[in-house]
Structure formats: C-alpha cells, structure tokens
Amino acid sequence: MIYDLIVLGGGPAGYLASERAGHAGMSVVCFEKKSVGGVCLNEGCIPTKTLLYSAKLFDGVAYGEKYGISATGLSIDQTKVIERKNKVIRTLVAGVKGTLKANHVTLVESEAVITGRNSEGYTVIANGETYTGKRLLIATGSSPSVPPIPGLNEGIASGFVMTNREALQITEVPKELVVIGGGVIGLEMASYYNSVGSKVTIIEMLDHIAGENDPDLIKLLQKNYEKKGMVFHLNAKVTEVKSDSVLFEKDGQVQSVSADKVLLSIGRRANIQGIGLETINVLTERGAIVTDNHMKTNQPEVYAAGDVNGKSMLAHTAYREAEVAVNVMLGKRDTMRYIAIPGVIYTNPEIASVGETEYTAKNKGLDVDIIKIPMRFSGRYLAENEGGDGICKLVINKQGRTIVGAQVLANYSSEFIIACATFIELQLTLEDIKEIVFPHPTVCEIIREAVFQY
Length: 454
Ligand code: NAI
Prior knowledge:
By secondary structure, this protein is α/β, with parallel strands linked by helices. It folds into three domains: 2-144 and 269-329, FAD/NAD(P)-binding domain (3-Layer(bba) Sandwich); 152-266, FAD/NAD(P)-binding domain, CATH 3.50.50.60; 343-452, FAD/NAD-linked reductase, C-terminal dimerisation domain (Enolase-like, domain 1). 33% of the residues lie in helices and 26% in strands. The chain has 14 helices and 24 strands. The strands form six sheets. Strands 1, 2, 3, 4, 5, 6 and 19 form a seven-stranded mixed sheet that branches. A five-stranded parallel sheet has the order 8-15-9-10-11. It has a five-stranded antiparallel sheet with strand order 20-21-24-23-22, sandwiched between helices. A hairpin with a 2-residue loop joins β4 (112-118) and β5 (121-126). α1 runs parallel beside α9 (315-329) and α3 (45-62) packs parallel to α7 (184-195). The protein is globular. The chain starts with a strand and ends with a helix. The model has no long low-confidence stretch (mean pLDDT 97). The structure holds 1,4-dihydronicotinamide adenine dinucleotide (NAI). Residues 44, 147, 180-186, 188, 203-206, 211, 238, 265-268, 313-314, 344-346 line the site of 1,4-dihydronicotinamide adenine dinucleotide (NAI). 1,4-dihydronicotinamide adenine dinucleotide is lined by residues 44, 147, 180-186, 188, 203-206, 211, 238, 265-268, 313-314, 344-346.
C-alpha cells in the first residue's frame, strides 16, 4: 500500500498531524519508537505539571499560616506523587492512541528510518518492513544537549546526573540537588524539588535565569526563590562533575557545591541524526531541519514540524505547525506565524509572556511605551496571594496603540496570556480592548487595569 502520508514521530507535532490528516481522509502511518505523546506527554510538559501541582498544594499548607491555616506533621510522599504522574500519563497516552485509531491512523510503535525516494514516493524502513508514502512529515522532536564537561557522561551513566526524564522518575527526594542551567526545565524542576525539601543550587552560565524573559520579572522570581532557600550562581561555568559534587568557575575562582543528584538542563537539540535525512538530502542548518512558514523543507512533499525544525521548541508551537503542514498538504491556505506564541514557566508564581519584551522591542528599534503595574492592582490576586508581589508589563506600540508584548509574573497567568496573544494577533487597539468586559473578580483583570493606565 502507498500511504498518503508517513509521519515520523508520535509527539505533539506527529500525533496531531496524523489525527488531522486522518480526519481529512488521508491514509496515514505514524511511527513512534518510544511512547506515543512524545517528550511533552511522557517526560515533559504534563508530568512536570502533575508534580508541580502536588508541590503547590504542599506549599499552600506549608506557607498557610498567613491564610489562617496551620498544620503539623506535613509530609510529601514522593512515591505516590510519581505514581499519580504515571497514571496521568497512562490516561493521556491511551487517549491519544484512541484518537489516532478513531481517525484511521496506522500507528507503528517502532523506530523508522528514511531510506530514500522512488517513483511512488518516500520510503522508510521499520521493523524490517518498508513503507511508502506520497508525503513525509518529520516530527522527531529533540533531546537534551550534553556539553563536553569532564565527568558529565560518567555522571549520566551512574545515575548521579539526571535529565528531565530521570528527574520525573526518582522516588527519593535528593537532599542536595544541583541544577546546571537556569532555563525553563531547570527552574520548573528546581521549583518542585525546593518545595519538597531538597536544598537546590542553580548554576547558570549567563548573568540571569529564565532566558529571554523580562528582567524585572526574572529578578523578582529569583528573589522569591532565594527567600525559599534556593541558591543561584550566575555567570558561572561548570568545569567538572565529580561523583558527589559539581565544580564551577565564577569570577575567576573555582568553587565546589556538593550534591546527591545533579540535573542537566542546558537546552535541547533537534533529533536529526540517524533518521536517514541524508538519503533524501533534506537541508539542515545549525542542527535543525530548515522549513519555511508552510513547514515545507527543501524537498518536495517533505515537511517538518515541532522541535526538529528548531524554530520554537514548544508543544503548542508544534501543534500549530502540524496543522499548518496538513492544511498545506490538503491544498488549503495556511501559514505559520510566530509573533504571538505564548511562553510559560510553571514556577510558583509562574511567568507567562507573549510577543515583544521591553528589551526585544527596543532592540528592534520599535517605538514603544511600557506599562508596568504590580499584581496587587487585582483584587482577586490580592485575596489569594498574601504579600504576593507579582508584576504585569505590557509593551505598547505607540503609533498603532496596539499591544505588541505582555509579561506577567503571577499564578494563573498561564491561563490568561492567550488573551494578550489574541490582542496581538488581531492587532486590537487599546480602545478596542477597553470596551471588552473582563470577568470580575479575576486575576486577568490586571490586563484591563494595565491598559487603562495608558
Ligand atoms: P533553556 O534553553 O530554556 O535553558 C537552558 C539554560 O542553560 C540557559 O539559561 C543557558 O544559558 C544555560 N546554560 C547553557 N549551557 C550552560 C552551561 N554549560 N552551564 C550552565 N548553564 C548553561 O533549556 P531547557 O531548560 O533545557 O529547556 C529545553 C527546551 O524545552 C526549551 O526550548 C523549552 O522551551 C522547552 N520546555 C518548555 C517548557 C514550558 O514551556 N513550560 C517546559 C520545559 C521545557
């Protein structure tokens, strides 16, 4: 049989593209070598949120006195937390499998490698069998980067050094956890282990944590975590991983921090090796597949979506890219836009952002004004965050009077940042937004408050 579409990878990009294409009547075969749902569902987004919810409940009681709650003998059962996480994953994986089936997608749970192209289409081999498809979607995702630091590979082999995968599986809470890399994964896992009792130290190469996020929010987040006992070493270069400690260089001096576990979270690399890209000459650049905004590669009817194209390593970007790819295959007009992709770091409090920051806007020479207000301008926020000191920032295009960016440090911001993404996408003016009724009392009213400051 010749399939209409071969999909390599069953993560968010791969499974959603398969579902959409199957739904539209295409014959689809999707290959997954580990577990359907990919990193997001099995060892990323969903499991971390499951763990972080337990931590949030725990913190709610542990720091509950200011809300009139006191408890003694509070403890967290890491084994139960992990079991619940596994149950959530099982439920969601079963759901994805069911949806694939309902959309008539053939799921092959095996590794597949591209072997070439013939007059009928593209060929891949899996389990010794050759499959042919008229189109190919590469959605093989990404893996943790492992830099050439002495002792790191030995640490990974012994289990002393973990990636996100192992950090979501250990049933014993480390007494001392050292996190290499203060980005998204590092901060989320650090947040969890800080809550459940580990002494957490973050070693970050740059002079700030949390990547491209707004410095005002980042500093406040760091201060919050320092109050909770987390230690940050910025501008610090890891020089060696020993069997019970990590050495790093800071201000020209080598320092050591002891650990019983280390988390490596210094970024991810697209999975482009070993999948046979060279057999069909797919163009790659800086370690990722080159795609246009229709998710097309340099080869006819070969598409790439999700982390593997390195554009924006986020599950929600992958979903949308997958839909664009399938729509283009179906001859529909659709184009991927990257201007309003929300980003969230699920710390406690969480940071949600979309579009330009003050820094990126000014760097691009945009003529912008900045609105910055404290979260206590929201009654609901104050009711639920005793002494909480979040921030909301909006980046306003002066000429068009439109929002071009928003950053919020406050819990629930992950749930309402989409409102700002919508304002950016639709280019609503501040006057348009002022006419919109926000539910009261909600934390999202902070956006309305901010808009009315202008
Ligand atoms: P990241 O790119 O977010 O952060 C890596 C951090 O490590 C950076 O701050 C970088 O400066 C630092 N770093 C790099 N080399 C270093 C070294 N040798 N020593 C010390 N620090 C070093 O990468 P991360 O956290 O590994 O996440 C990977 C990907 O997964 C990201 O692209 C992220 O978008 C995605 N992700 C998204 C989540 C979300 O949306 N909530 C959750 C988890 C992951």
